[in-house]
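Subject: design request, 137 residues
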């Protein structure tokens, strides 16, 4: 696996983790903002400790900090892709390489033959290889 493939795989993993964390955050916000989250009659569970809203807020803050860190990492990786002068290559690297959209879907969306996109994606990876001179996994 060459450097470009490692870079794109790392970026795709960041995107997947970011999506997962944002979904968890939304679910958590809905859970703590529901009326049952602050219901005083449900304070104690048999054999357990009292439910504290501060723990929920701390978990939410931790989740938010992890999202911010991943967004920063993703912005840094997008900066490497922005070094490429060709907009078409950048588009292919973002959509297919980082966000995992299949080339066939991209082909149908932008009305370009699939074989042309495969060739362009290979050329985009070559251009990215030149831009990744100082990137380390």
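Subject: RE: design request

Done. Sequence follows.
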């Amino acid at each position: 696996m060459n450097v470009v493939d490692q870079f794109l795989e790392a970026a795709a993993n960041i995107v997947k983790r970011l999506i997962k964390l944002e979904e968890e955050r939304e679910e958590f916000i809905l859970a703590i903002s529901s009326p049952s989250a602050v219901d005083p009659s449900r304070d104690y569970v048999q054999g357990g400790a009292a439910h504290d809203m501060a723990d929920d807020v701390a978990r939410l803050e931790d989740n938010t900090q992890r999202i911010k860190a991943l967004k920063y990492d993703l912005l840094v990786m997008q900066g490497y892709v922005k070094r490429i002068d060709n907009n078409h290559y950048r588009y292919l690297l973002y959509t297919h390489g980082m966000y995992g959209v299949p080339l066939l879907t991209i082909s149908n969306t932008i009305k370009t033959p699939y074989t042309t996109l495969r060739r362009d994606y290979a050329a985009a990876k070559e251009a990215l290889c030149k831009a990744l001179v100082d990137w380390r996994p």
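The helical segments are 3-32, 53-82, 87-98, 103-110, 114-131.
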